[in-house]
């Protein structure tokens, strides 16, 4: 569904990704784990067109989207829930969600039943349902994270990129976020997940890749990675869920 081949990306002259390759099959959850500065967020940004790849290919549902502008990649069916949430603070919760469906309103993506999908998103995120008329900027950090995820769902995408959905959240909200990811997975939503809580990510994922200094160091079924001594020592130690 989403295939990354030999991807190189840089900020200015500093190359961050040194030729990474990974696959996200349809209906699966794949996680990308690694320490801070390994290049996880850069990978997400290069996939969604927020930064231009220096080399390599990004293929979405059989279509080469390498080098396309972000809005064109979104139209092709890639939704990105970015690190730091980036909700539209002066707009209501519902208006933020409807903006997520914008390419469907303009017929750039199959329209489907937007009203029904809005109701589904609010059912999936009950906190948002309670606050649907509230301005997004007045929500708590956890609620804004849920809004960013729900906005991505509203595209009715082929693939969702989730970048650090638990960052800065209280433990009870981290559990809520992963409950929602599990529910989306059960509904067959294809996801690439970057997450600081490696153990929680591997618990929900089908397959995992470990990124070290801009290169994939090891990859395999999530269950296998959870039991890999090197992965356990580096990423599944103290404080991880």
From TrEMBL:
Gene: livF
Family per similarity comment: Belongs to the ABC transporter superfamily.
A GO molecular-function descriptor: ATP binding
Signal peptide annotation: none
Pfam families in the cross-refs: ABC_tran (PF00005)
Protein name: Branched-chain amino acid transport ATP-binding protein LivF
Keywords: Amino-acid transport, ATP-binding, Cell membrane, Membrane, Nucleotide-binding, Transport
Organism: Collimonas arenae
Location of the ABC transporter domain: 2-238
Cited InterPro entries: AAA+_ATPase (IPR003593), ABC_transporter-like_ATP-bd (IPR003439), ABC_transporter-like_CS (IPR017871), BCAA_Transport_ATP-bd_LivF (IPR052156), P-loop_NTPase (IPR027417)
Biological process, per Gene Ontology: L-amino acid transport
Lineage, highest ranks first: Bacteria, Pseudomonadati, Pseudomonadota, Betaproteobacteria, Burkholderiales
